[in-house]
Amino acid sequence: MKLTFLGGAGTVTGSKILLEFNYKKILIDCGLFQGLKELRLKNREPLPINLNDLDLVLLTHAHLDHSGYLPILVKNGYKGKVYCTEPTKDLTEIILLDSGKIQEEDAKRANKYHYTKHEIAKPLYDVEDAKNTMTHFETFTTNKWHPIDSTTKFKFVNSGHILGSVFIVLNINERIIVFSGDIGRKKPILLPQYEYIKKADYVVIESTYGNKLHKNISIIDALLRYIKLTYSKGGILVIPTFSVERAQEIIYLLSILKRQNKLPKIPIYLDSPMGVNTTEVYFSHSNSHKLTYEDIISMQSTVQLISDVNTSKAIVNDKNPKIVLAGSGMITGGRVLHYLDKLISDKKNSVLIVGFQAEGTRGRALISGDAELKFFGKYYDINAEIFRINDFSGHADQSELLDWLQHFETPPILTFINHGEPHQSQALKVKIKTDLNWKCTVAKMNKEYYLEN
Length: 453
Prior knowledge:
With 453 residues, this protein is α/β, with parallel strands linked by helices. The protein has helices spanning 37-40, 64-67, 70-75, 86-113, 127-134, 219-232, 246-259, 273-284, 293-302, 309-317, 336-343, 362-367, 398-406, 422-435; strands at 2-7, 16-21, 24-28, 56-58, 81-84, 137-139, 146-149, 152-158, 166-172, 175-179, 202-206, 236-240, 268-271, 304-306, 322-326, 350-353, 372-375, 378-381, 385-388, 414-418, 440-442, 448-450. The protein has two domains: 2-212 and 394-450, Ribonuclease Z/Hydroxyacylglutathione hydrolase-like (Metallo-beta-lactamase, Chain A, 4-Layer Sandwich); 219-392, Rossmann fold (3-Layer(aba) Sandwich), CATH 3.40.50.10890. The chain is 32% helix and 22% strand. The radius of gyration is 22 Å and the shape is globular.
């Protein structure tokens, strides 16, 4: 057996792990690289895999950094299946269609305004490619073994990260390999807590917050404070929002504040076609989250869901106080840029960052205190007030990662640490060795790791 990390090693993006055994090749996740240009360029490099030899893709969850390369895989000739849970399939379809549309629009804009270095800017894939990809999906239930062949079976186990997210447990000739994907918080706002796994010979664990502990603060109080500060200036609060999970969490908290009569009487918008569709998918999978029927009704009455382009343009041009949730969460594209185009240079407005911001993204530039932000081919002065709530994170912190690991009954032969920037992964490695006395290594991109059979 052999593991090769084709992404998500030394970085928090582009997750792809190739597992080879018994003349089979399985890809665990198939994510798009985001952030730094040197990483984004990897999306245009061919994978070191003959796609005719790739047997299967197993998907931990729907986020773009875990699913966004699938249309390229299919476009380049992959004919196999993509296995995941039903909510993951529904969310991935929304995410990939949105990604294809954004890439089409970005390429069109770059060509129109001539800010591409290429003769003609081309999208990595388009909406039609995304649609073709979805025909390869097959869904499976959690906590049940499903056969791949006579020697291999897999099981999905809830990871508590986003709707439908799972750990992948593979049993190959009675050797068990566990892939964490992304691990959620111990007490998620909307989801059941991650489940524990008792046995594994090898574990691959993420380390997004491998060096950090989330502060024990009241998120809802912090959210209300920033809303009131912005309202007191007569400004507009823009929340760049991840359309999957984060948008629903914020809407839920806003609905609580509204029920408590604590919100200013201003309109609240979710201006994101993907966010709107995701919210509807969320409501339809009532067995996969903790929301009650009353919660859902309250959420629906709190926020106006905007999909129509003309309505969005009208809201962008309206200068009256309001709260706007708009994609994308790291400000890498989407409708949030149109709001920032109008608002980022005015000090009465505010931008609230509510999630992890990868290196090289505009969101990272904002929280790093940059004076300017570049998009639409030009630079904008950052005069708006920048706020941040770290504890919205859907990723486990160091203590929660250790909590999950400590529930294995015996130490694995080897634990691989991936999906983290170098200092985060190294910190988690030291902590695992010190506290658990486990053998572990930080995964390196494109390095081959042979496992004992």
